[in-house]
Hints:
It is an enzyme of class 5 (isomerase). This protein is α/β, with parallel strands linked by helices. Helix 4 packs antiparallel against helix 6 and helix 6 crosses helix 7. It is built from 23 helices and 21 strands. Among the domains are: about 45-135, CATH 2.40.50.140; about 245-275 and about 290-415, Rossmann fold (3-Layer(aba) Sandwich); about 445-600, Rossmann fold (3-Layer(aba) Sandwich). The structure holds adenosine-5'-triphosphate. The site of adenosine-5'-triphosphate has 20 residues, from helix 10.
Amino acid sequence: xxxxxxxxxxxxxxxxxxxxxxxxxxxxxxxxxxxxxxxxxxxxxxxxxxxxxxxxxxxxxxxxxxxxxxxxxxxxxxxxxxxxxxxxxxxxxxxxxxxxxxxxxxxxxxxxxxxxxxxxxxxxxxxxxxxxxxxxxxxxxxxxxxxxxxxxxxxxxxxxxxxxxxxxxxxxxxxxxxxxxxxxxxxxxxxxxxxxxxxxxxxxxxxxxxxxxxxxxxxxxxxxxxxxxxxxxxxxxxxxxxxxxxxxxxxxxxxxxxxxxxxxxxxxxxxxxxxxxxxxxxxxxxxxxxxxxxxxxxxxxxxxxxxxxxxxxxxxxxxxxxxxxxxxxxxxxxxxxxxxxxxxxxxxxxxxxxxxxxxxxxxxxxxxxxxxxxxxxxxxxxxxxxxxxxxxxxxxxxxxxxxxxxxxxxxxxxxxxxxxxxxxxxxxxxxxxxxxxxxxxxxxxxxxxxxxxxxxxxxxxxxxxxxxxxxxxxxxxxxxxxxxxxxxxxxxxxxxxxxxxxxxxxxxxxxxxxxxxxxxxxxxxxxxxxxxxxxxxxxxxxxxxxxxxxxxxxxxxxxxxxxxxxxxxxxxxxxxxxxxxxxxxxxxxxxxxxxxxxxxxxxxxxxxxxxxxxxxxxxxxxxxxxxxxxxxxxxxxxxxxxxxxxxxxxxxxxxxxxxxxxxxxxxxxxxxxxxxxxxxx
Length: 681
Ligand SMILES: Nc1ncnc2c1ncn2[C@@H]1O[C@H](COP(=O)(O)OP(=O)(O)OP(=O)(O)O)[C@@H](O)[C@H]1O
């Protein structure tokens, strides 16, 4: 398996480049081969006549005299007369590229890329290519551009990928059954990879893309549906006899707060599900801060009253603890016995909890991944709730479910995705939606400021802190490099210490130990820290009502859904809250994202806009958008492929014997390995 072959096995990759690739998250050959271009440039050479004044041109020129070098304010200017297209006299100018002087010989034919000034008949050159580097025209039509870094350039990455493709061609395994490939006319995996990295035509690229998206979705669906098909075979659900006074009793425990209509409707739907003989698989969608936790607690309470146990899994310890505090307040008074199990639960305590659980003396077990371990055994598990479930692998969800028989399932999700999409991703499930926020909340006032207006933003933060409130300061996103991201958080933190002198400032990033992060988060929750400089690690579910302002640096780098999630950390109490987006968007799409954020805080509108804006080629901001992450497939664009993949996966799994045939050995093995590695699909 190429996942196990380190990049050092590719001819030409030495220690320095290995390190550079590792920083881009590429460690093995499989990752290198799926490091796809995010853009293809048209590098074909055109005649000068086809361009207008001010255009970026790519032309062929003959050096028509010896280049002259001069210096101006410490910068070099190299100038040479040229003949463009063997006929048009002009000048070429290179700024700060004096090293080219020796290489540019009179009479030499080179390709220049740069800006054309008609008036001065001059090309300001940004890129020079010598004869031997000239691309063949079919290669130049769609020249791949890769995510790269200072240590490794895009053309270098391209060369390594080509080398790896040649060297490992025989080891590129095709997981898709031949029959499927034929039915849907899908090219084989090797061809697809080849075409992604060096497409000769648009159509070739389209076919490669279609094939890889199909594969990705198909594997995802197989994994997802294995559990569903099994659950169906097991039988339908169990009727849970929930007494009808649960609504009243639960409302009493809320100490005067009124449930929103959306919360109440969702509770009704859950109540009906539990009563029906059909197993419940329900997705509870609610915008950030809409109060999903209470609804989940209601479900837990109802189930407990019917005589069953409940497991609720959160993606982080902090969140699980937050649930515990809230459950103590809301559920313990109703007689629900609650316990918490996480990775940092001590051995003795853990043993006690497990004993109580097996004896049915714990009704609701809250926790993290720690709930998945084998020795966690319930006496009578009836309901599994997973919070922010997209963060768990499909296999992990299945594991928890299997700890009970015919368990009901409730997923909580803060990403409002359109229904068609939900169906395609999760298959058959029911969806409850909470649209409104609790009464008394004010919408978060959102401002977009240019980075030159940082002072103003900092003043606003200070103003809130002076009132005794707390602030989140979000450091720029650095895609796929936790290290760089941490560095940027550290330097922002240093700045903030002087900007916010007199206040207690702290910092949170992905390179700290879990323990360190926890301690910091805890003191923020307790109000001991007033301003928290952080990378996106704060994003999920944290509930600190006293935090009323968020300042996001380089906001143009984040995706819409992500910005919305981040912003959801403020505006969770009765006080007016603010979100300041600092940023200078480079293009239209980024600008529209920021404008959308200023214009609305309705997560559903934002989700739609997000899908609309996320075009191919945009790679920043996809992370943590809330949808499962796919490398090639784009749910906005390839929804139909997902649907077909879903049907095919279902068919395969239902025809049980079929699935056991030797031809599917590779697939089964892949799924098994994905299981044990806890992969996302
Ligand atoms: N009906 C209500 N009235 C007043 N406050 C409420 C109501 N429902 C929930 N809350 C409070 O609102 C806050 C947000 O609720 P909760 O944490 O459940 O949101 P959420 O939907 O999980 O949001 P996120 O996805 O952002 O984590 C909590 O402090 C909760 O106690």
